[in-house]
Amino acid sequence: MSATPSRRRLRRRWRPWPGVGWGVRPERQRKLAAAAKIVSLSGRGDLEVAGKLSVSQATGTEATADLRRLGFTDYEARIYVQLVRQSPATAYEISKTTGVPRPNAYQALEALAQRGAVLPVSENPIRYVAADPKQLFDAIARQTRNLCTDLADQLSALTPPLEDQYVWTLRGEASVHDKIDTLIREAQSVLWIKAADEVLRRHKAALQEAADRGVEALIVLFGPDADEFRFNERWRVYIHEGNGVRMGSADNLFTVAVDHAQMLTARLDQEVVAAHTRNKPIVTLAQSLVRHDYYMAEIFARFGPQIEAAFGLHLRDLRMACFSPAEIRSFQERTGLG
C-alpha cells in the first residue's frame, strides 16, 4: 500500500541527518549530526575538543549559580557569563544566545552596567562587553568586606558585649587544641599557664612566637625541665611542687589565662573537653590557681626538706586528708605511699 501525500511529507520532514536515528527532532538531529561529523573527522583529538566544550558549558552553569549567590539575578548572571564568553554583543544578540526575553535583557544589561559588570562600547546599536572578571570580583570583595566591617561595628554598638557572661564548651582533641593555639597567638601582654610539658610541646611554635613579640609568661610546669620553655628572661617557668609530678585529677588539666581577660581550662585525658570564658570571676579564679601554684613552687624551692618532714613526701598527709577515695587510690598507685 502506497503512502499518502501527507505521510510522504511527514517522512520528508522527519528524515534524520546522516548517521542519526529516527524519532529525534530536527534541531536535535542537526546538533547530533554535527557532533558525529566532528568525531568522524579526526577521532580522539576531536573527541577531546567536544569534551572541552561540554566542560565549558558546565563551568558556565556553575558560574551562573555562584553569581546568583553574589546577588545577581538569574538573567544578569546568564548575560554576564555569555558576555565573558563572547563580546561585544547587542541586547538582541544576547537575548538570542541566552534565551533571556529581550525586554528583560535590556533591564538586566542596565543593572549590570550600573554595577560595573558590563560596559557599553558603541552606539547604534549599543554593544556591550563584560568587565574583567578578576577586577570586577576584587572590587566586589573589597566592597563586601568593607560593608561587613561597618555592619559589625554598627551592630556591636547597639548592645553591650554579652560574651563575658558565658562559658563555652569545646569537645574533641582538634577543637580544643585549635582553641589553645589561637589563644596563645592572640595574646598581647601576658600568659599564665599550668600544664604538662607534653601538652606545651604541641604548642611550642605558638609559645615561641608569643615570646618573640614581647608577651610575658608565668608557667607552672608538670615535667622535669623548666628551661625547655624559658624562652627569655620574661618567661618564668616553675616546676610544680618542686618535682613536676602529677598526683590528683586536677593535675591532668591544662589551664591558661590570657591578658587577664580570658581563660581556658581543658581535661586532656580520656574525653578531651575544655571550657573557655571571658567571665571576670572565672578568669580571676584561673589566675589564682596559677598564682598559688607559683607560690608553692617558690616555697618548695626554699623549704622543700622542711615541708617534706612536716607533711610527708608529695604532701601526703595534706592530700590524704582532703582527697576523695578515688583520688586516694590514684595517689597511692602513683607514689606507693600508704
UniProtKB/TrEMBL annotation:
Superkingdom field: Bacteria
Alphabetized InterPro entries for the sequence: TrmB-like (IPR051797), Tscrpt_reg_TrmB_C (IPR021586), Tscrpt_reg_TrmB_N (IPR002831), WH-like_DNA-bd_sf (IPR036388), WH_DNA-bd_sf (IPR036390)
One Pfam family matching this protein: Regulator_TrmB
Residues covered by the Transcription regulator TrmB N-terminal domain: 67-134
Transcription regulator TrmB C-terminal domain span: 166-261
Classification via Gene3D superfamilies: Winged helix-like DNA-binding domain superfamily/Winged helix DNA-binding domain
Leader sequence segment: none
Annotated protein name in UniProt: Transcriptional regulator
Species lineage: Bacteria, Pseudomonadati, Pseudomonadota, Alphaproteobacteria, Hyphomicrobiales
